[in-house]
Amino acid sequence: MHVDNMHGGADGHAGHEGHGHGGSWAGHMLPAAFFTIWGLWWAVHAGIRVAAAGARRSAYVPLAWYPLRVPGFGSKLVLLEPLLKVGLPGIGIFCELYFHPPRPKFNALHNPDGTFNASHLSFWQHSSMYSFFLLSGCVDLFAARSLPPRAPLLALAAAFLAEALLFAGHLQGGAPVTDGLHLLLVFSILGCAASIAAEAMWASPHAALARAYFTLLQGSWFAQTSHALYGKPSWPQDMTTQMALPVLFCLHLLGWAVLLLCANAMYVKNCHPKLWDDGGMHEEADDPVAALLASRLGHQTVPSGGVRHKLRVSDGAETSRVHHEGEA
């Protein structure tokens, strides 16, 4: 997660002057590593579960988090993902608001006269973002007992939406290339929020895979931003660099798409050969024109003889008990 350092001494001040935002190389590479690892975790589990549901011709059940199962550890690591979502943001909030050597103190949002403290605003922005991910972890832990089964997904979508909103707040009078980098980062974060919301609303296996894809995109673009702003040398803040940013972003989009498509194809071919030989997972090939006309005339549509469903979408009746079942 993003940690700027506006009180980081000379280096932090130089970063603020040069780029229009506080920050550092480490402050961008840390979330780059975090979101890349998280995206890979989601990509592996979502790909396995989608393929397994297709092979069994059973309903796909969406999950906000995936249990970790290691032989010999029993149930001790099952809740690792939600516990990390509670613990890491909690540490982040403490560090942002209290722990700033050499004089640890509470970094208040307001000055004694009631005005906002400009030098502390970034700490509160990041703490607000951490708070939503912490809340998401709490919802994961308590959803099975007191909340509807899709509540963890909605809480996770809200966390990414809050992250996008807070990063959009960084786009205030900064250098043009810096603002362009952060604007594209906001797009990747909104992709995470939208795919998670779609997964919650429609139990969509496509959205589950999209969630992993946009999370990986966010991680790699954090790394790209770190290299652009704090590499040696940093990129020039000119029109040429601005025009190059969308090209680079599209290359990130294309790279992750090719990587995930190839990895998914290799997994299905090697672990579900029957599914591969049968032609994969298809939806019913209804005639969209006939369906539209039928809906206008009040008639029911009849499938036009397309390939039958091998992957069904959950109807929403399931509960969080799936966390206690095997992944296979």
Describe what this molecule looks like in 3D.
By secondary structure, the protein is an all-alpha fold. The chain has one domain. Helix content is 63%, strand content 1%. It has 10 helices and 2 strands; from the N terminus they run ααβααααααααβ. The chain has helices at residues 9-19, 25-56, 80-97, 121-146, 151-168, 176-202, 205-230, 239-271, 273-277, 288-297, and strands at residues 59-60, 312-313. Strands 1-2 form a two-stranded parallel ribbon. Helix 5 (151-168) runs antiparallel to helix 6 (176-202) and helix 6 packs antiparallel against helix 7. 33% of the residues are buried.
Helices and strands, with pairings:
Layout: H1 9-19, H2 25-56, E1 59-60, H3 80-97, H4 121-146, H5 151-168, H6 176-202, H7 205-230, H8 239-271, H9 273-277, H10 288-297, E2 312-313
Parallel strand pairs: 1-2
Helix pairs in contact: 2-7, 2-8, 3-4, 4-5, 5-6, 6-7, 6-8, 7-8
Query: Given the C-alpha coordinates, what overall shape results?
Result: globular
> How would a textbook summarize the main sheet?
2 strands, parallel
Total helices: the number is 10
Q: How are the strands of the largest sheet arranged? A: 1-2
Structural class: mainly alpha
The sequence of SSEs as H and E is HHEHHHHHHHHE
- The number of E-state strands comes to 2
Integer-rounded radius of gyration? 23 Å
Percent strand equals under 5%
Question: Average pLDDT across residues?
Answer: 80
Distance between the termini: 32 Å
Estimate percent helicity: 55-70%
